[in-house]
Amino acid sequence: MKKLLFATFALFFSVLSYAQIEGKWKTIDDETGQAKSIVEIFKKTDGKYYGKIVQLLIKPENNNCVNCKDDRKNKPVLGLEIIRGLSKDGNDFDGGTITDPKNGKTYKCTISRDGEKLNVRGYIGFSVFGRSQTWTKVN
């Protein structure tokens, strides 16, 4: 009986954590395959999800986001909030934006979780016109 109860609780909590994106994630460059940074995704009091760079794994071309067009212009890349305003939609997270600190461009964003990986897609207009990266969970 104890084993059945434990298995039920374990299954319940694994299902709850499966669709969550909060935590630290290693970003992998979709062009080079290299790990670039660690991004921490968190939920703010507005109920939306945000993400900021908490560690750089390779030296950026520029220490500041010189090409950013909004309030992030010339802000340090380390600590930069690159994900803004994502909302949970079933098992996916969308409705927000992601900014590429390398070129300063901001894209619409959708994120889905697949076990210990995040599928992050940034796009303009329609999701077909964009690029995807797979980020891995950092413990």
TrEMBL record:
Stored InterPro entries: DUF2147
UniProt entry keywords in alphabetical sequence: Signal
The organism's place on the tree of life at top rank: Bacteria
One Pfam family, short name: DUF2147
Glycosyltransferase in keyword set: no
Record-annotated DUF2147 domain positions: 23-137
Signal peptide: 1-19
Transmembrane feature ranges: none
Protein name from the UniProt record: Uncharacterized conserved protein, DUF2147 family
Organism of derivation: Halpernia humi
